[in-house]
Amino acid sequence: MKALIRRSAAALLRPLVGGRARLRWTHLILGGALLMPYWLLGTVIVGPLLDADAMFSNSLGLQFGAYAAALPLAAASALFPVVRPLSVAAARALCGIAEGSLADGPARSRAARARTAGWFTLHVGLGGIISGMSLALPPFAVALMVLPLSSELRESRLGMPRVFGHGWVVPLAPLAGILSLVALAACAAASAALLARLAPVLLGPTPSDRLAAAERRAADLAVRNRLARELHDSVGHALSAVTLQAGAARRILDSDAPKDMEFVREALTAIEETTRRTVGELDSVLGLLRQDDDPDADGGAASGPTLDALEGLLARCGVPVTLTVAGDRGTAAVPEPVSREAYRIVQEGLSNALRHGGAAPVTLHVALSTEKLEISMENPLPGAAPAPVGQAAPEPVVQPVVQPVVVRPGGGRGLRGVAERATLLGGHAEAGPDGPLWRLAVTLPLPADGGSLRTRR
């Protein structure tokens, strides 16, 4: 029975004096402290209107008049944008408000500043009342609780109401003192609960705040996608080529009578050159990351490979490539952003051919006109019919690999990345089977005046 009574009492007192209630009470006391400068200024304003000699007296008229004058002053000062992040930080820390329900950053719009002013005025207004009660009621309650034990206190009454001078009321004074403390806790809890309920309304994000947050998320997502494309195209292609060359060299070394040691030497040389080139490209991607973190940093993406480096890519890509070019593909004719993206598109197309077709030959055609840059790649589909009997098969540039490269787990972003790169430049990409071949076709527009073209990030 006693345990049940204790649990019931704890359940009743927890909303009034529990951990959350104490934190919210502290929030109210903070509001009372913030009200003090405005209240003092209010006494200066209201004092001469009442009585110049009683500006700092204990007159209730002066105190409540200064309180009424302080609230508009507090509301006016809360119109500054910096007030909202300070109020949000205090509300989150002391009122237990959920993270996503309050706005971040200064109040920029008129509606946001008006809401912040309303919240700040309510905070300091209720905080001033609860702070005053917290200063006055506890000593009064203690005096009531010891009133039956002190005859001197009963005779002086120290400003107590006249009713406590009657003898029959004295035994009830301790109960009145306890009830006054409970009333103080209840008023503080009710005021804090009101603030906690209104915080998401007055300090929550406005439609303009939500729009700005959505734009920030979109920009962050665009940066992450850009870095993912760069890493996928550079490192992914290098790993596919290295895996292809290493597998071919291992098969020759594992054979009973290895005959073509020269190919093994060439494969190891290709692996060395591919990894060295990839380290440089990785530095470029990391430079891009540093540029996103620091706008003043040197942009790593601007130093990435362009179409001028296409021969080096094709020479050690691990797959025989037949290249045909129409027009000048150098950066003098192609803007640098387009040239970099075109290099990455070719690199990703070769990676797809390596992953799905092994050492099957690839045909690459690059056509440049005054209006657009066209890239098309073709390679046989896996399992395509062999050449007719009596017809010689095309001679590969490098030794064929018996087993195609296994697709890496988590792959599949290749064609999507190609399409994203083309779309960012205002072009388009198409990919799919074309008879016995797999065909990738990309068209990138060029500026009419031959000037620079920036990708839309």
TrEMBL record:
Gene3D superfamilies: 1.20.5.1930, Histidine kinase-like ATPase, C-terminal domain. The keyword Transmembrane helix applies. GO terms for molecular function: kinase activity. It catalyses: ATP + protein L-histidine = ADP + protein N-phospho-L-histidine. The chain crosses the membrane at residues 28-50, 62-83, 118-148, 168-195. Its EC number is 2.7.13.3. Residues 224-293 form the Signal transduction histidine kinase subgroup 3 dimerisation and phosphoacceptor domain. This is histidine kinase. It comes from Streptomyces camponoticapitis. The lineage of its organism: Bacteria, Bacillati, Actinomycetota, Actinomycetes, Kitasatosporales.
